[in-house]
Each structure stands twice: as C-alpha cells, then as structure tokens.
## 1
Amino acid sequence: MKEPNSVKFIRYKSLPSTNQKLYQLAEQGAEAFTVVWCDAQTHGKGYAGNQWLSSDNQNLTFSFLLKNLDLKDQAYLNRWVANCLHQFLTDWQFPVKVKWPNDLILNRKKLGGILIENRIKHDKIDFSVIGIGLNVFQRDFGMLNATSLACFNVDFNEDLAQLLEQIMSVFSQNYHLILDKKFDEINDYYLKSLFVKDQVATYEHNGILQNGILRGITPEGKALIELENKPIQAFAHKEIRLLY
C-alpha cells in the first residue's frame, strides 16, 4: 500500500481563500498533503457557491491537497473527509453529526463545513483541494445558527496549530481507505454519523414544506429521502433543503 506524503504546513496571516491559494500551488506542482491555512480568510467559499464567514484567529480555515485519484473515488471523497473529521471530534468527546452533504452539526447548530474542488485531467482526478472550516473559539455568530467547540465546552483551549496537526494526522492515518477503495467501509461509517437519519424532519422541496425521513445515500452521493405519502426519492444538493 502506498503511504501518503508527509504533511507540509504553509501558514498565512491573511488570504482571500485557502482553497484558491492551494489550487494555485497545486497548479505549480505542490505535493500531496500540502496544507494551506490562515489566521484570517476574507472571501472563504462554501459548498455550491455559499460564502464561509470566520472570525480572525478564532477558527480553523484550511485546505489540503490530494493528487492522482481515480474518478470513481470522487463520489466517496466527501464522505471520507466528513468521516475523518467526525472521528477526530468524537475522540475529543464532541457529539457531532454530519448533515448531508458537507456540514458538521453540534447541538443542532453548524460547527463546520467542507468544500472539495477537483481538477479532472485525462479521466483522472489530477488533484483535489479539500477546504475545511471549523469553528473553534468564536462565540458570537449573530443571527446565524452556528456554534463552536468552545461554545460547547467552555474549558476547551487547544492551540489552533496543534489542533490542525492532530486533524491532519487523522487524515493521513485514514488515507489508505481511499487508496485501497474501501468504499463500503467509508459509506457505512458515514451513514452511522448522519444527522437526522431515519428520523422525521422538515424539508423544503419546490417551495413546499414537507415531513420526510432521510433513509440513505446513493453511490453518487444523492440523499435518499422518503417524503410524506411518497416513495423514497434521490435528491441532489440544492434540490431539497433540511430545516433544523
């Protein structure tokens, strides 16, 4: 089994976007497991064009690089990333859940998010830039339904740099699951950590609020949801919205 490259950290005081910077470095030949992180991110991106907002020196905003993956790895990459973060946080006794497709939830509030940007070349993933935002010390989120590790545990005081090193260690240790294509194992873990799975919840679909139950995830990453009085249907992100 091929071992991942050693992790290389590159820290910036301020960046518009860690994903944008790492994408540029990847185009210039940066190695796998290069990590770009910053104290202040001014134009962070979230999934599907949403903006990621973070207070300076309060949270972790970082991106890391993977290279030369198969196209069929793409559908499971987001699940693998979410699983690694879930594993790390639950080891720290934070009872997080993963909200499909890419959010971390703690006490029914958003703790963090994932954004993956792939460059496809010759039917392969030339490289993947994996961006992560994790609320650590921030306490004031205004009207946003968000939280942080310190909001949940007022005694939490881990150094951000050390926290990032620990997170990347989990990714490095679990990288073999992607390389060895352990997709069933990845999917099984993901399903067990899903927020409101097999629970009645409120969804918005075509402008209408309906009760529904999340039953699973397709191999392509769509959500299998059983809306009220309807058979189970597969939904892509933005086709349906969970209200929580």
## 2
Amino acid sequence: MSWLFVIILCLIILLLLIYWQFIIAEGTYLGQGVVTFLYDWYALQYDAIKEFDEADEITWLGLPLFNVISDDFEGIILDVATGTGRLPRVMNRIPNFKGNVIGLDYSKKMIMVARQHVPGVPMVIADAMHLPFADESIPVVSCLEAMEFFPVPAQCLEEMVRVLAPHGVLLTTNRIGWETKFLPHRTWSAFELLTMLDQMPLMDIAIIPWENIYDQVWARKKELYR
C-alpha cells in the first residue's frame, strides 16, 4: 500500500512539473530550442488556442498604437515575437494606417502561418536576443505577450531599446497574475519594471492595465542612447 501511495505521489508531482514546464512556462526553463519546438508544434492551432477577437484587437491594440504614432506615420513597426502575425494583421485593418510592419519570430512555422495571414508583409526569422537591425533604426518596436518566454527577458528589452530610434515608441507587455509566481526570473513587478526602464534611455514610461494576465508597457526613446 505504501509503495502504491509513493508511485501515485510521484506521478502527481511529475504531472505538475510537466504542466509547469510546458503549459505555464512554455518550455522557457528548458532552453530556447524547446520553446521554439513547442511553437512550431502548435503553430497551426495557435490562433484557435488564443481566440483573438478582431474587434477587441482593433479597439485595445491597433487603435491605441495608431493614435500614439499619429495618422501621418509612414515608418516601420518592428513586431518582435510576432507569432502568427497578430500585430501586422491588426494594423492592416486600421483604414488610415500608412506605415509598414515587419514581423520577427524564431519559429519558422509561426512565421509560415503569419505569411499566410498577411501576404506581402516582411517576415524575419531571427533571435529576439540579437535583433538583426542597426542601432536607433526603427521608429516603433513592439513585443506582445512574449517577454517572459525569452532566455533573458532583460536582454531582449535592451535589444528593443537599442534598435529603437530617438523619440520612437516602445510597446511591450508585462505578465501579471498568480502564474508569475511560477515564472521566476522571467517577470517583474511593476516597481521592478519601472526601475529597470528608468535606467534605460527612455521617457514617458507608462504601465497600463490591459488583459487579465498582462499589462501594456509604453515608452519613448530619449534623444541620445547611452
């Protein structure tokens, strides 16, 4: 009887570990290769899993960004960890948006799906930890619901700030909620995040409630990158 109890207990612990590593953490503690494999694996089901609502996406994501960058914006938005092209799709549905979006992701199959959704939109397969763009070359940089799944989230944030042009707009997200307790060294409290952003060449920093498990984070690049 005692052995049966031990076996059942071990199975429960194993299942909890699997749930933590593959569902909550999405493989982030097992290495970038595992994260990429998982996203490749369910790329075709990703949109159904996320259940994006087009009207909500336009109202709470597309229009706020459009209003910040102004209706005469004709520059580039770099969407880091674009997945299946969430932001490119939303911005393409904003009637007066005149700019261009570049999607970037490390998962080839996610990029494949994104290209199907938004043909003609440039898609780049690259590592968010080492963005293949020159310093201060991109007027708008975004990264949505992905920061906590990078090997070193702070490094990715620094990379986005590096390529962001002076006075450019940064839009990213910060994970909140009970699951952050199971994502050590991958998420920040609002105070920790503000402290880190204050040390970067950023201004007009704002953290805004957005979804149940994410806040939006907005900022602009200062004139000089130091």
